[in-house]
Amino acid sequence: MKQLLVRSLKVCLGALLLCSTTIQAQMPSPALLVLNKEDNALAIVDPVSLKVVATIPTGAGPHEVTASADGKRAFVSNYGTFGPNAEPGRTISVIDLEGQKEIRQVDLGALRRPHGIEFADGEVYFTAETNKVIARWNPTSSQLDWILGTGQGRTHMLFLTRDLNKIFTSNVDSDTISVFERSKDPSGWTATSIPVGKGPEGGSLSPDEKEFWAANSADGSVSVIDIASKKVTQTIDVQTKHSNRLKFAPDGKLVLISDLGSGDVVFVDVASRKVAKRLNVGKNAEGILIPPDGLKAYVAAAADNKVVIIDLKRLEVTGEIPTGKGPDGMAWVAH
Question: How would residue 7 be classed by pLDDT, with cut points 50, 70 and 90?
């Protein structure tokens, strides 16, 4: 009888521990997705508890992440490795967010160094830097169904208008922003390359989609492009050492720029086109994410292995999240 009682207690305790583990690992909603480049992993963060609830292996050198509209899948561009034995990445990781596991790595064939990545209308758009192209992968057919050359050096990030009639890319080595517009051309698109400052990396469409702001990493400036005329109408000297990302706040009143060189976030008032504040967040400020409510911003301090939380009303740091080694690209999932 005593042995039976002990076995029963052990079974009950095991069941409770399993239940507890399951609860801790549940996918939060909303969730913050953070890529840790040096860990080759995706961290799922609960933005309420500020805890990492799961860490999922990806391919080598994950740089950017996007999520499906239903919040069930994440797609990661595996950029590859650097150094003497560098291996350019050639895959996209597909992550089951509810199951918290990588379910496959999509082989991109001859395409190398995938970087900027966005999910739209059921498909995954991405850049391939080595090949100077933007491409599209269809999760339903599991096929690369479209590739378009940019003719520009190091096509880095891409940005889509809501109606998908325009696509923008930042071309770091060509000092240009490309605008692709749907047309009756045999390719289905026309392309315009707009000269900007030196080394444009980050950028962002204004919420009303009338302007595109490019952060020029090599000369400390921001180029403001009027989308209707496809011309630079203003250059703002923001005095960054190496701007990495630029994001508009959802209300369109503020722009955030991460400065990898100084570790600052630079806040630019859109109306006055002037720097409103500089805020140090740590070493190597990189990826920026602003949730749809516009109350907070999350900024990766890659060399400090953390993501910093900024209150966008007070423009102050209110917390930080240790996420893993080398955090950078982020995405927001609400379902």
Answer: low
